[in-house]
Design brief:
elongated; alpha+beta; single chain; 2 domains
């Protein structure tokens, strides 16, 4: 989630300043460093490319070590829908955060449901057990139940 040009810090995570911007030009898409965009003058010798390569190398090292997390398509504060097959019901919830679950040995999405409950869904279950769109949740619930019955 962005906050003042930085990614919002979460417990155990540090803010990361954006170094590049994607641009659409008459020649197509390109990537430029923030400093050159602000000055409207790209200078290869500005040092930003070296800084970007160092940052990329750090991300690749983190990925190799299993420390890089790519978040799902949802953000903190988003409304999500959770179909529950044995209740034939779709719960509504708000994403409160992202946490590492030692029990699951995976990153999870923390969701506060409309009945004041809290649930934790695995990132990889986005689009399977929780959805941003109620129609997708309803479709999943029908598939879970194998019927076209009424949904509460």
């Amino acid at each position: 989630m962005l906050k003042n040009g930085l990614f919002q810090e979460m417990p155990g995570m540090r803010a990361v300043e954006r170094m590049t911007e994607r641009l659409v030009t008459n020649k197509g898409q390109c990537v430029a460093c923030i400093g050159c965009i602000e000055e409207s003058n790209c200078k290869v010798e500005c040092g930003a490319i070296d800084d970007c390569l160092k940052k990329l190398a750090a991300y690749e090292t983190a990925e190799d070590e299993g420390r890089l997390v790519v978040l799902s398509k949802c953000n903190i504060g988003d409304t999500v829908y959770l179909p529950i097959d044995f209740q034939n019901k779709i719960y509504t919830g708000k994403i409160e955060g992202f946490e590492y679950s030692k029990m699951r040995n995976a990153w999870v999405v923390k969701i506060r449901t409309n009945d004041a409950g809290t649930c934790y869904e695995a990132f990889e279950d986005f689009g399977k057990t929780f959805f941003l769109d109620i129609e997708d949740a309803a479709k999943a619930l029908k598939e879970m139940n194998g019927k076209n019955g009424e949904i509460q």
